[in-house]
Specification:
By secondary structure, the chain is of the alpha/beta class. It is 33% helix and 20% strand. The strands form 4 sheets. An 8-stranded mixed beta sheet has the order 8-9-5-10-4-11-12-15, with helices on both faces.
Length: 353
C-alpha cells in the first residue's frame, strides 16, 4: 500500500511556509533537505545558514505546524543542517564564505543596501546619485548592482565595457569616480532571466567576493525589487552596516516600504532610514512646489516604524533623462534642486555611518 503521506506532500505543504520577512518560501530558498516519509513518520533537515536562533525557531515551528496539518502524519522529526557541514555555514548562500559564514571585505568600511518592497520607486536612481554625492565629499565609493534579473547600473552610470580580470579577481569598472560591478558587465542582457534561486545566490556572492573592491569608505548595494533571493543572500553572506528603504509617497508603495523595513529587522540589519523619492515637483519656470501624490507618507511611515527619515527627492524628468543618458543628475546638474536633495541625504547618511 502506498504511504498515506508522501515526501511530495511534505514538500507541497512546506512550500506554504514563508521565510520570515521574505516573499519566498523555505523550499524555494533551498532550506528543506532529505525529506523522508514512511508510515506517517516524517523526517527532514532544515539547512539553515542563518545563525539567528529566533529565526531558526520560528521557521522550525512554522514547518512543524505545516506538516502537522497533513492527514495521516504520526510523527515529525525536524533535524538541523545535514551532516558534513559545520552549523551556520551551509545552504546555497554560505558556500566559500569565511569562518563566520560571512564574506569578509576587509577594505570596506560601510556596506549599505538600498532596498524597497516595491519595484520602480527609484532604488537604482537613488543608489547612483547617492554614490556620486558621497564621492563628491571626498569619500571612496563602490556600487554593487545586486539586481541580477534587471541590472540598471551599467546604463545609469554610462558603462558598457567588460571588466578586466587579475588572477581570480574581477576589476571593478570605474565611472563618475565610482567603482562598480554589475552582472550586466559580465553576461548578455537577456541571459540571467531564466536563472533560478541558487544561481542568483552564487552570482550575488561572486559580485561581492570575487571583485577587487580595495579600500572603500562606502559600498552601496542597489537591490532588486521585493524581498527575494538576492536579499536573503546579501543579508546572510555579508555583514551589512545597514539598509536604506526607498519609497514613493503613494500608499501602495508605503505598504511595501514597511515590508522592506520588516525584512531587514527580521535578519537584524539596522535600518538607516527611509528616503521618499518622487515626492514633489518643482516647476522649472516659477519654482513653485507641487505635491503630485499625497504628501508626507514617507515621513509618517518612518515615524510609525520608529526609523529615521533621511529626506525627500523631487520628481523631475531631468533625473530620469540623466539616468538614461548614463550621467547621474548629481554629476550632470551639480547645482540643481534635485542634486541638492541627494547631497543633503548623502550628508545625513555620512553622519550616521
Ligand atoms: N526623482 C525622480 N524623478 C523622475 N524620474 C525618476 C526619479 N526617480 C526615478 N525616476 C525614474 O523612474 C524610473 C524607475 O526608477 P529606478 O529604475 O531607479 O527604480 P528602481 O526602484 O530601481 O526600479 P526596479 O525595482 O525595477 O529596480 C526610472 O525611469 C527613473 O529614471
Ligand atoms: Mg533598480
Amino acid at each position: 500500500m502506498a504511504d498515506i503521506v508522501s515526501a511530495q506532500d511534505v514538500v507541497d505543504v512546506l512550500k506554504q511556509v514563508k521565510y520570515p520577512g521574505f516573499d519566498r518560501d523555505i523550499v524555494s530558498f533551498g532550506l528543506v533537505k532529505n525529506i523522508q516519509a514512511a508510515k506517517g513518520n516524517v523526517v527532514f533537515n532544515l539547512a539553515f545558514s542563518t545563525q539567528d536562533e529566533s529565526t531558526r525557531r520560528q521557521i522550525t515551528l512554522a514547518a512543524r505546524e505545516a506538516v502537522e496539518q497533513l492527514p495521516g502524519v504520526n510523527d515529525i522529526q525536524i533535524m538541523g543542517p545535514p551532516p558534513g557541514q559545520p552549523a551556520g555555514a551551509q545552504g546555497p548562500m554560505a558556500q566559500q564564505a569565511g569562518q563566520s559564514g560571512k564574506i569578509e571585505l576587509p577594505g570596506v568600511k560601510s556596506i549599505v543596501a538600498v532596498a524597497s518592497g516595491k519595484g520602480g520607486v527609484g532604488k537604482s536612481t537613488v543608489s547612483v546619485n547617492l554614490a556620486v554625492a558621497l564621492a563628491d565629499t571626498g569619500a571612496q565609493v563602490g556600487l554593487l548592482d545586486a539586481d541580477i534579473y534587471g541590472p540598471s547600473i551599467p546604463t545609469m552610470m554610462g558603462v558598457k565595457d567588460q571588466p578586466g580580470v587579475i588572477g581570480q579577481k574581477i576589476l571593478p569598472m570605474i565611472s563618475h569616480d565610482i567603482k562598480m560591478m554589475s552582472i550586466g558587465f559580465l553576461i548578455p542582457e537577456d541571459q540571467s532571466v531564466t536563472w533560478r534561486g541558487p544561481m542568483v545566490h552564487q552570482a550575488v556572492q561572486q559580485l561581492l567576493r570575487d571583485v577587487l573592491w580595495g579600500e572603500l569608505d562606502y559600498l552601496l548595494i542597489d537591490m532588486p525589487p521585493g524581498t527575494g533571493d538576492a536579499h536573503l543572500t546579501l543579508t546572510q553572506s555579508v555583514a551589512l552596516t545597514g539598509g536604506v528603504i526607498v519609497t514613493t509617497p503613494q500608499d501602495v508603495a508605503l505598504i511595501d516600504a514597511r515590508r522592506g523595513v520588516a525584512m531587514f529587522q527580521q535578519v537584524n540589519v539596522p535600518i538607516l532610514g527611509i528616503i521618499e523619492n518622487m515626492s514633489y515637483f518643482i516647476c522649472p519656470h516659477c519654482a513653485e512646489r507641487t505635491e503630485i501624490f499625497t504628501t508626507g507618507g514617507g515621513k509618517r511611515a518612518s515615524q510609525d516604524l520608529g526609523v529615521p527619515f533621511l529626506g525627500e527627492i523631487p520628481i523631475d524628468p531631468a533625473v530620469c533623462l540623466a539616468g538614461d543618458q548614463g550621467t547621474p543628475i548629481v554629476r550632470k546638474e551639480p547645482d540643481s534642486p534635485q542634486t541638492q536633495a541627494f547631497r543633503a541625504i548623502a550628508d545625513g547618511l555620512k553622519q550616521i555611518l
